[in-house]
Every structure is written in structure tokens, then in C-alpha cells.
Amino acid sequence: MNVAVVGAGSWGTALAIQVGRNGHRTRLWERHPERAERMQVERRNPRYLADVELPSTIEVSSDLAWVLEGAGVCIEAVPSVGLREVLPALAAHLGAATVVVCATKGIEVDTLLTMDEILEQNLPKGQPLVTLGGPSFAKEVAMGLPTAVVVASRSTEANHRAAEALHGGFFRVYDTEDVTGVELGAALKNVIAVACGVSDGAGLGTNARAALITRGLSEMSRLASARGANPLTMMGLAGLGDLVLTCTGDLSRNRRVGLGLGRGQTLAQVLAELGQVAEGVVTARSAWQLAQREGVEMPITEQVYCMLYEAKPVGEVLRDLAGRGRRSERG
């Protein structure tokens, strides 16, 4: 199978490595020609995952038309803020039968569209679409460590082709038809991870972290259900699995944002040190907008939004969350 991977950040590179390891002919698109040439020559991504060698099955190029030529599967792994910029060229060069796998996570600000909805609106009508979710740090995927993910599509055939490209070695791929649930699980857990990082950074202990994970899952489930998702999806890889990993793992960029804030750094300082995209920062705003539109109560998401966008002090955020009135756990 010929596979194209659009986006050579850490996640796109890791997915290209996994597909290439499976023996598929893989073309990876890096938008900057000089970076693409360096990756092709050095056989690694010096900016991300510099310690992992690219399999011989991978070719790197800045020519998107060439990367997409003859691809049976295209894995789109561009950060959410840059997705629309890439779509016109992507739409122009995709084959009609090419299965597009959305590996971007997030909810667009103001439009409140999930990434699959943006793709559906901007790619040719009838383009097969699949969403990828589940607990999967890029570095561990690139290293070949055991990982389980889920692909979601309304097309059984598209799910099968996406899974065929990705499944292999210690990388297991499950499937579901619940696109909305996988999209929202992948996006919302990043916001909860920021909250958990704040709690850990402030030294509030593991009880507090567990409470935030559990009540965060409740928030995610309420919004996903309001949007028509299967509530059980939030109990699976795209929900609970991804949430636990992102809230507790040291490789989590969103948790690291929270850790810095909890230790007294400003958001600007944290993001400068991070040097990579933390999707939870953008999604905190769009998730809060979506919750308001849908009439869904999401107190943790609300407080993360206030902290990031209204400069609400961490101490006040923690006091307001702890000071909420009693209620039924399932209410």
C-alpha cells in the first residue's frame, strides 16, 4: 500500500515511522524544503524524535502533489491551527478513493467544528474519511512501544483500510463507527490535562489529580452525549484511555502547560519553554464555547478557560472548583 503522511511534526513523523515499519511505501510531507531535504538525507527528524531513525520505506518531500500521488491512504497530521491553510492543496491533489485519516485533534475556535467536520466541508464530496484517536504519545509510537488506538468512520471499508496501514508490531488498531465520540474525546482530554498539570504543579496531591480525571471524564461524556456520541466511547481508548495518559504522562505537552502554570509561570513563559503546539490551550476556548452553545455544564473546562484567557489566578481557580455546591455524582 502507498501511504502519504501530511505533516512532519512529532505526531506525523511517528505515524509515518509506524506505517513505514509495516512495510508500506510511505511519503512524508514537510512544508519547508530545507527541512525535508535534511530529513531525507539524515534519515531522522532533527527537530522532533531526533533519536529515531526513519525506516528505508519512508521518503520525505516538500512537494505535496508528489507525496499524495498514488496514495491509497493519506494520514493528515497538521496542527489544528494550520489545518485550513493546507486543505486547498490537499483537496486539489487527493485521489477520489484515497482514505483520509484525520490525526489532528481539536475543536476550531468560533466555528466550533471538529477536525473531521472541517475536512468534510473542504475536501471533495464523498472523500472517505477516518478519525484516529486513543492514548498514543508520539515518542513511544516512534520507538515501537506497545500502543492501542481506535479509528472511527461511517464507512466500514475506510476503517479497514486505515487500520491496515497502521496496525502492526506492537501497534494495535481497533475500530468504531462513533466519529463524534472519538473526535470529542481526542480534543477535550487535552483541556482536562491542563487542569491536572495545574493541580500537580501546585502540589495538591494525587487525590486531587484522580478527582480531576474522573470529573473531567464526566464533563467529556456530557458534552459528547449532547453532540450525539455514544457515551460508551468515553469509556474506551478515545475517552478514558487518552485522558489518563495525557493527564499523567510526563510526555504530555498539555500537562506540562498546567505544571508550569501551577508553579507560578505565565502562559507565555510556559509556551516559550515548550516550543511545540499544546492543543489544549486552543481547545480550552473552543470547548468552553461549545459547552455554552449546547447548554452543558463543564466546570473544569470553564476554569481552565478563565485561567488561560482571562488571567484568573490559579488560587482562585482551585478555590472555585473546590467550593462548588454538593450534587449527585451522576447528576
CATH topology-level fold name of the largest domain: Rossmann fold
Summarize the biggest pleated sheet: 8 strands, mixed
* Helix count, DSSP H or I runs of 4 or more residues: 15
Assigned CATH architecture of the largest domain: 3-Layer(aba) Sandwich
**Secondary-structure-derived class:** alpha/beta
The overall number of domains is 2
Rg, alpha carbons: 19 Å
Beta-strand portion reads: 5-15%
Q: How far is it from the N-terminal to the C-terminal residue, by CA?
A: 48 Å
Shape assignment = globular
Written as H for each helix and E for each strand, in order along the chain, the element string is: EHEHEHEHEHEHEHEHHHHHHHH
| CATH class categorisation of the largest domain | Alpha Beta
Strand order of the largest sheet: 3-2-1-4-5-6-7-8
Characterize the structure shown.
The chain has 331 residues and is α/β, with parallel strands linked by helices. The N and C termini lie far apart (48 Å). The chain has helices spanning 10-21, 33-42, 64-68, 83-93, 115-122, 138-143, 156-166, 179-201, 206-226, 237-248, 253-262, 267-274, 279-294, 299-309, 314-322; strands spanning 2-6, 25-29, 58-61, 73-76, 99-102, 129-133, 147-152, 171-176. The chain folds into 2 domains: 2-177, 3-Layer(aba) Sandwich (Rossmann fold), CATH 3.40.50.720; 188-322, N-(1-d-carboxylethyl)-l-norvaline Dehydrogenase, domain 2. Helix 8 crosses helix 13. It has an 8-stranded mixed sheet, with helices on both faces. It has 15 helices and 8 strands. Strand 7, helix 7 (156-166) and strand 8 form a beta-alpha-beta unit.
